[in-house]
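Practice problem: predict the structure.
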Amino acid sequence: MDAYLLWLLLGLALVIVELLSGTFYLLVLGVATFGAGAAAWLGSGFPVQVVTAVAVAGIGAYFVHAYRARNAAQQMAPIDAGQPASFESWVDQQAGLARVRYRGASWDARLEGDAALQPGALLYVLAAEGNTLRVTSRRPA
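Answer:
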């Protein structure tokens, strides 16, 4: 099989996977492999194909990152922000780690600010970071 066909198939696979993820970084990698495929089709050697793919991927990733950073303020607020949670117990009070009850389940939480909390105290979710909630005792504005 010709090298340009392998690059094009890899690019097509990356673009298809990108449709499932929605981050645009895989789209950049897909376009980069299309660029490498074009270099292969024009008769360039493998090192030139790789350099083409790396250059296009680097430039594309920079522009996607810059776009996302520039528009971060316009992004939708986290769906959990401002929702109430109930304090259950401390995991490590010095580090601000606790267990809270939120949406009917027990969650790990990182408390922002220092407060002496009793079980059942009302907290407010600031954000979800993976499976850990950032919470505060003050109601967010």
